[in-house]
Amino acid sequence: MIDRRTRRHLVSRVMTGTTVVAAVAAVLPLFLILAYLVLKGFSSINWAFFVETPAAPGSTGGGVSNAIVGSAMVVGVGTLIGVPLGVGAGVYLAEYGGTGRMAQMVRFVADVLNGTPSIVVGVFVWTWMVKPMGHFSALAGSVALAVLMIPMVTRTTEEMLRLVPGSLREAALALGYSRWRASLGIVVRTALPGVVTGALIAVARIAGETAPLLFTTLGNLNFKTDLLQPMQTLSLQVFVYATGPFPEWHRLAWGVALVLVVLVLLTNIAARYATRSGRATGR
Amino acid sequence: MLGLFLQLVVSAWPAIRAFGAGFLFSSTWDPVRDVYGAAPMIYGTVVSSVLALLLAVPLAVGVAIFLTEFAPGWMRGPIGALVELLAAIPSVVYGLWGIFVLLPALREFVVPPLQATLGWLPLFSGTFRGNSMLAAGIILAVMIVPYISAVAREVLLAVPKHQREAALALGATRWEMVWTAVLPYGRAGITGAIVLGLGRALGETMAVTMVVGNRHALSLSLLEPGYSMAAAIANEFTEATTAMHIAALFEIGLVLFVMTVLVNAVARLLVWRVTGGTPAGSRG
Fold it and tell me: Angle at CA B86, nearest 5°, toward B81 and B91?
């Protein structure tokens, strides 16, 4: 029988070890997924992959230029709608709403909307835009992405603006700035790196969204730039190719997924970098 | 949000009126005869999410404890960042990985021994073809670990330092300090983090659609294909031809929405109680 003291220290060691194992097990999937993406995806990426449109089903070759342009447009328009609204709501919460009932409501709704399944947002936008218009369109997809983006941007913007010292605000007001000029010109400008980070992370998140696009943007095998028509995106292309019956499609799916993940991770890393470089001047 | 709710109710109304509460308990789904019941999807969503929680919670809480209590300072940042990057990978990519890596691995290495030893349990009966509730649960677990651990970490960081110092001063080992002083203090917040993970798992669409099998049937076995609410909407919405089919899918959307809103509201209140109003985990 080992004595109590030894046993207690043994338990402590064992549990520490267990948490280390947990940390390794949690990070492992990231490496596994990245490794498979690079192994299987890299070989299918070549010049044609970026500039050609998909080949006929079953045949080899072809590219995904339509999905690359489509993703850029759908996400771009979604960002143009989502960021101003999100930042605006964030400014309201931080500068004007305070702890009033209205602001608390907005905050709670934003948090709950943040957890709403993206597919439900897709269904919602379908009734809102696709049904009245009578056909699927890239614009409807952008709106769905914007709806997903707004609560994320709102909350990070508010958080960042709160970090700006009150003395800056007061100094601006004391110099005779009007309230909105103090908010936009001084407070938002000071917190800009943080706000940009929040927006970029939101962009990275919506760029990978597939579910809300299934019945708004729909997907399209042809090269299209008309926002009012169905369009292909990278995420939809991965889904179609991965669940399709052709080995050639599976090969391409890994390539498209690799491009998508690289874009998303780069955006994320850029977002983190924006705050880091801004910290010296910002706060 | 209320608008969203009303919109869903209005669109689902034909189905609500036609099938009443039976919609939630019937397992018939027959677009030809226009008769719909969502029991298999509701069951599938709940079972795959609970399975994911069972797998993910010990892991995620372990990571959070490691990062706040045990890890040397230089390790905390990078590992935290890696776990967060895991949350940034699009779900459709998880699905792709699930189809071509996880399913074959399960078929080769995991399921045969599982069935050999536990095959007598109804949970592990039936033939395994790949697409299954088990696969969906595992993929979901991988996806929600980052969410749970990020929030749990923030909760643990909010535990005051003197709690830890007091425990150590009383002669506790480091693990006893975590177990008796840190975890009880953050209990509500960690529960909140877990419920938040549950909310994510319930609504996750793409990865589940790609590995769950998409079959309208109730089966106790985890190894057989099932269905989830989100997957049903994703698969059938563009193909639904009758108005009643669309309405039934809307009602599924409504059920899903109500479930996730409730789950998220509970989670939010629990986390807020500990971290004091900061939006922990509200960033993607």
Answer: 150
